[in-house]
């Protein structure tokens, strides 16, 4: 074990002390956290400052921090002195998921998995992603109000299944999509995760049984698909993620086992669709309320410039932080933070939402203003939508590309108008989604509307007006 860093101040309490936090009993904190996470965290930040402790029953003390120096130290340095705090995902994603591997094995797995998610590899999927997004947008009826979150989820699921599984097998994809989609309700997530605090299956729980049965069905389908892929005579020519993972070798020349591959596919599909779909729904809500941003997007894209589009995606992921806790870590050595030194019995939660709402970093943090990302490059610990360190999001380049292509297609194909006041963030598992399900009014984009007819009424006061053919 390495030497403990010198005490940062003389006021350090004992090695076992915890930062203060809400005094409410554990069950009350659970209810507040479950049903109103944004207000629970905002109130606790306001009362306790950068770092505070949340206490939930059946859970280790959770220290929530937006202290950037602590975040830097959590994300850098020797990866072997820290472990993930992702045990909760064990029963759903499987023991061999990248999210759950211990440090030494995790490093090897990341080396094997990075190539298909590298920026250049991901860009080769652009045309297909654009096609899938455009096909979906063409079905959004002009003159109507659309809840954009469900169709966004369908399209991101289609994209990730195709990219990850490779071959186009509509039956397999449809069955997997139905199973994954069935977990997108709060009750299903509760069934999978809540009774299994440390990620062990609670078979005694009647709500969870059907959820586990669906997970097992999904694992069976994926295992059969992996077996077919291993013997595919075209394996060497395939460029999907699964084919690349089947071919990948670690430094000792070993490949991934069938269980490794199965748990990895579950993780990639689960981690890779709901998150991006939620960001798409937020994009619809925000753009509907910010016509000036839409105008500038159209102007810059028409001039062949993509910087403003990139800045819009960055700002979207800041102002509506999707994964509000960007990382959970357990330090195997005493970890100084503020006035305290945390032990390994504590989970440290990185409060990305708190960092992104800091007015010193982002003046008027609640304002949606892509321009702020045009000037200076973002400091890595001040901008953490994809987490950081060893477990930083493997799909960050893919998600960013999907969002750029989605926003580009959106401003090209449709005119958005607000159907409700700006949505509130509500917790859906590990993400914060729009309270309105991304409800927006749809009309054709101006150039298309002008081109197709002169006596067309384009709906802007939505739900009431229709677009006449
Ligand atoms: C806007 C979309 C997305 C957001 C906001 C997001 C966010 C995150 C965050 C914060 C983490 C860190 C978790 C931790 O430290 O424990 C993470 C990890 C991960 N993400 Fe994403 N993600 C997104 C899209 C994707 C996509 C499209 C994929 C698909 C390939 C993906 C795959 C993963 C995987 C496999 C990990 C675990 C990496 C590891 O443990 O080493 N994510 N993501």
Quick overview:
The chain is an alpha+beta fold. Helix content is 48%, strand content 11%. The protein has 18 helices and twelve strands.
Distance between the termini: 73 Å
Helix content: 40-55%
pLDDT averaged residue by residue? 85
Number of helices: 18
Bound molecules: protoporphyrin IX containing FE
**Topology as a string of helices (H) and strands (E):** HEEHEHHHHEHHHHHHHHEEEEHHHEEEEH
What features would you describe in this structure?
This protein is α+β, with helices and mostly antiparallel strands and 469 residues long. The protein has two domains: 1-77 and 324-383, no CATH class; 78-323 and 385-452, Cytochrome p450 (Orthogonal Bundle), CATH 1.10.630. The protein is 48% helix and 11% strand. The chain contains 18 helices and twelve strands. The protein has a five-stranded mixed beta sheet with strand order 1-2-8-5-3. It has a three-stranded antiparallel beta sheet with strand order 4-12-9. A two-stranded antiparallel sheet has the order 6-7. Helix 10 (208-230) packs across helix 12. The longest helix is centred in the middle third of the chain and has 32 residues, at 258-289. Mean pLDDT is 85; it is low at 1-15 and 449-469. Residues 84, 86, 98-99, 110, 267-268, 271-272, 275-276, 279, 322-323, 326-327, 385-387, 391, 393-395, 398-399 line the site of protoporphyrin IX containing FE.
């Amino acid at each position: 074990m390495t030497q403990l860093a010198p005490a940062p101040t003389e006021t350090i309490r004992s090695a076992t002390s915890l930062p203060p936090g809400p005094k409410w009993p554990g069950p009350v904190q659970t209810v507040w956290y479950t049903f109103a996470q944004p207000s629970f965290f905002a109130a606790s930040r306001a009362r306790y400052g950068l770092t505070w402790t949340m206490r939930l029953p059946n859970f280790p003390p959770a220290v929530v921090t937006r202290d950037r120096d602590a975040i830097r130290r959590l994300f850098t340095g020797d990866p072997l002195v820290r472990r993930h705090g992702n045990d909760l995902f064990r029963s759903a994603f499987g023991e061999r998921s990248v999210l759950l591997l211990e440090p030494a094995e995790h490093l090897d797995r990341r080396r094997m998995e990075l190539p298909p998610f590298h920026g250049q590899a991901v860009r080769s999927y652009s045309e297909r992603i654009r096609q899938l997004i455009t096909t979906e947008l063409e079905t959004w009826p002009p003159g109507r109000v659309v809840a954009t979150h469900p169709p966004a989820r369908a399209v991101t699921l289609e994209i990730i299944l195709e990219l990850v599984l490779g071959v186009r097998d509509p039956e397999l994809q449809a069955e997997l999509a139905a199973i994954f989609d069935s977990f997108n309700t709060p009750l299903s997530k509760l069934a999978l995760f809540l009774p299994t605090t440390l990620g062990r299956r609670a078979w005694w729980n009647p709500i969870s049984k059907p959820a586990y049965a669906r997970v097992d069905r999904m694992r069976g389908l994926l295992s059969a698909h992996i077996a077919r892929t291993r013997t595919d005579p075209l394996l060497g020519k395939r460029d999907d993620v699964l084919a690349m993972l089947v071919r990948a070798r670690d430094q000792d020349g070993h490949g991934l086992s069938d269980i490794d591959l199965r748990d990895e596919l579950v993780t990639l599909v689960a981690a890779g669709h709901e998150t991006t779909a939620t960001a798409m729904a937020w994009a619809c809500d925000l753009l509907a309320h910010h016509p000036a941003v839409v105008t500038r997007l159209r102007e810059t894209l028409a001039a062949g410039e993509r910087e403003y589009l990139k800045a819009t995606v960055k700002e979207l992921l800041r102002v509506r932080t999707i994964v509000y806790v960007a990382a959970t870590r357990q330090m195997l050595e005493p970890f100084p933070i503020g006035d305290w030194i945390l032990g390994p019995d504590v989970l440290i939660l990185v409060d990305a939402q708190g960092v992104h709402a800091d007015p010193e970093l982002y003046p008027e943090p609640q304002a949606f203003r892509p321009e702020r990302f045009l000037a200076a490059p973002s400091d890595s610990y001040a901008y953490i939508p994809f987490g950081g360190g060893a477990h930083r999001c493997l799909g960050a380049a893919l998600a960013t590309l999907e969002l750029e292509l989605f926003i580009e297609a959106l401003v090209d194909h449709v005119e958005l108008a607000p159907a409700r006041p700006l949505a509130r963030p509500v917790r859906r598992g590990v993400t914060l989604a729009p309270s309105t399900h991304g409800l927006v009014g749809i009309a054709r984009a101006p150039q298309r509307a002008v081109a197709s007819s002169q006596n067309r009424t384009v709906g802007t006061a939505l739900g009431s007006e229709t677009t006449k053919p």
